Amino acid sequence: MVKPFETACFDQLDVGQISGLVETDFGFHIIKLEDKKIETNTNARYVWGNDEANGGQCNYADKSADAFLNRFEWYRDWADMRMADGFGKCAPVGSYAANGYGLHDMAGNVYEWCSDWYADNYYSNSPVNNPKGPVTGKSRVLRGGSWAFFNHFLRVAYRGRHIPLNRRSDIGFRCVSGLTN
Q: In the chain, what are the domain boundaries?
């Protein structure tokens, strides 16, 4: 279990201005999420339980996306599923309850870049334990859903993809470092 610490996040970055993966000399890495459930005392499908999100658990399907997504028929068809949380697009970190590890916004808010390259059938041939992803590819894996998409995409087990050089306002990243004993 991740030990809680006083300041779990820093000032919010200008979301959507990050492209690709960020490697630094400070030891920060993009979280690499594997296709596993969180190991807690529950078999729940989502961090908050088995019921699909209803707008109170995380930031997804935000009505602020209407201005630029209404041009897509698939988005207009989902009008009754949109939420309004009072934030324009991305909500400040910590606006929703933390998961069992004390981490905020692992589902919803912004998709998060993963270091894995994307391949459609990777998991059908991957190692069972600690799959590392393909060696190369054109797109990187995205996980966790975002404020612009619907609850189907909120599971960490859902793998999206995007070309690393492109930018979107609903894609972000998370800086992490190893724990010391």
A: 14-35+55-181
- Residues 22-65: pLDDT tens digits? 444 444 444 444 333 444 445 566 656 666 666 666 666 666 66
Q: Does domain 14-35+55-181 have CATH number 3.90.79.10?
A: no
Write a three-state SS string for the chain: CCCCCCCCCCCCCCCCCCCCCCCCCCCCEECCCCCCCCCCCCCCCECCECCCCCCCCCCCCEHHHHHHHCCCHHHHCCHHHCECCCCCCCCCCCCCCCCCCCCCCCCCCCEEEEEEECCCCHHHHCCCCCCCCCCCCCCEEEECCCCCCCHHHCCCCCCEEECCCCCCCCEECCEECCCCC
Q: What is the pTM of this model?
A: 0.59
